[in-house]
């Protein structure tokens, strides 16, 4: 029999030789704009904690009070005996915030996709995905067994060709998968065109709002709410683990959809419910982003994004950042070569700046980058330090 360790060591050596091997980096501090790595303080420009809620007193208090009342674990899946009152409150609050009929929370964003998409589609169906969509959407599409097609990023003309061809030969169910804000490029989907196409060709549309919820739109409801299109998509998906500073994922949509997923989404049915303290923190975050403090935090975030873009070298930025638009808190600095991106990230770390290199398979080969993420918790002088080190 082949030796497992020998085979895996060879594969690791190949990753090392192509600058694609990854290693875990351990923080010995709380999440925030300042972190500690190996006992050394660093300024953190790589977190998805866009509003700085991961260490917010209101979320901490909600979690602590819940631990005292309910303990640390849910004890079972939600369909057995793990559906605590907080899980139910979270789903109701989420639906009210997203202005949908119903919503359902999962243990993670990845679990949300892996449960939802295969529940909706089968081998006789078609799923069409933007090539830059998150891995959870692509993996879930593959798991469904449906025919999988991809269209070049944001190329709705190509998408229409796929839809037209599919409808000419079949009445199969068709699901289109996109993100509202793309996690590695920081650009936005052409939502109006997508809605028009899905209606024209009688398809379903799932929009992942992971990087928009909390920071975009009225009360932070997301890009769909900002564009007035929330009521025209079939499924809204997202996570509590980014701007909301907690953990877990969700789907929001019609009551029939949620009832069906409770009965069909395997990652929901066969997973122990999220810890009640996590649900409590998520509920507190939903309340916070809708009040005056949430509005103030969003204003600070966009002030910080504008400040960094004003200081950034235009030659590093993708085209969609050159017109002054603020699509997201994600600013990719395109490098290209994986080795060069690793070298620059290492030099920044030596200057106490944490901005890891992003490489294949997270982004396409030859499109390595530094992915700068801004937070409402960053101070102007911290952004100045990053910009002066990067751009001189």
Shape: globular
User: What average pLDDT do the residues reach?
Assistant: 95
* Main beta-sheet strand count, sense and barrel state: 7 strands, mixed
Beta-strand segment tally: 13
Radius of gyration: 21 Å
What order do the strands of the largest sheet run in, or round the barrel if closed? 3-9-8-7-6-4-5
Class from secondary-structure proportions: alpha/beta
Helices, by number, come to 14
**What portion of residues is helical?**
40-55%
Strand content: 15-25%
Contiguous runs where pLDDT drops below 50 for at least 5 residues: none
* Distance separating the two termini: 56 Å
- Secondary-structure element sequence? HEEHHEHEHEHEHEHEEHHHHEHEEEH
Describe this structure in words.
- With 392 residues, the chain is of the alpha/beta class.
- It has 14 helices and 13 strands.
- The strands form three sheets. The chain has a seven-stranded mixed beta sheet with strand order 3-9-8-7-6-4-5, sandwiched between helices.
- A hairpin with a 2-residue loop joins strand 1 (34-37) and strand 2 (40-44).
- The chain is globular and about 55 Å long.
């Amino acid at each position: 029999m082949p030796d497992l360790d020998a085979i895996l060591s060879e594969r690791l050596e190949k990753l090392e030789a192509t600058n694609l091997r990854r290693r875990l980096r351990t923080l010995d501090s709380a999440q925030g704009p300042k972190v500690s790595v190996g006992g050394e303080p660093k300024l953190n420009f790589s977190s998805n904690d866009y509003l700085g809620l991961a260490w917010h007193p209101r979320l901490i208090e909600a979690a602590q009070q819940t631990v005292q009342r309910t303990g640390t674990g849910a004890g079972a899946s939600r369909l057995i005996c793990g559906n605590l009152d907080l899980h139910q409150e979270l789903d109701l609050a989420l639906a009210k915030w997203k202005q949908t009929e119903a919503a359902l929370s999962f243990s993670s964003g990845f679990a949300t996709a892996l449960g939802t998409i295969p529940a909706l589609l089968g081998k006789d169906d078609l799923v069409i995905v933007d090539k830059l969509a998150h891995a959870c959407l692509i993996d879930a599409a593959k798991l469904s067994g449906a025919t999988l097609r991809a269209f070049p990023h944001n190329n709705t003309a190509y998408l229409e060709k796929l839809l037209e061809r599919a409808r000419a030969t079949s009445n199969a169910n068709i699901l289109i998968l996109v993100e509202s804000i793309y996690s590695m490029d920081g650009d936005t989907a052409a939502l109006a065109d997508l809605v028009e196409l899905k209606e024209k060709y009688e398809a379903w549309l799932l929009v992942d709002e992971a990087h928009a919820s909390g920071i975009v739109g009225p009360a932070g409801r997301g890009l769909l709410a900002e564009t007035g299109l929330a009521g025209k998509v079939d499924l809204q998906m997202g996570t509590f683990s980014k701007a909301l500073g907690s953990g877990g994922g969700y789907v929001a949509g019609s009551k029939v959809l949620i009832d069906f997923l409770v009965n069909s989404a395997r990652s929901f049915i066969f997973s122990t419910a999220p810890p009640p303290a996590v649900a409590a923190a998520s509920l507190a975050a939903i309340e916070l982003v809708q009040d005056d403090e949430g509005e103030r935090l969003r204003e600070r975030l966009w002030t910080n994004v504008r400040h960094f873009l004003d200081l950034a070298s235009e030659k590093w930025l993708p085209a969609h950042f050159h017109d002054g638009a603020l699509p997201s808190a994600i600013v990719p600095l395109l490098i290209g070569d994986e080795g060069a991106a690793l070298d620059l990230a290492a030099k920044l770390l030596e200057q106490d700046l944490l901005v890891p290199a992003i490489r294949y398979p997270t982004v396409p080969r030859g499109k390595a980058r530094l992915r700068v993420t801004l937070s409402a918790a960053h101070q102007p002088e911290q952004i100045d330090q990053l910009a002066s080190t990067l751009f001189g």
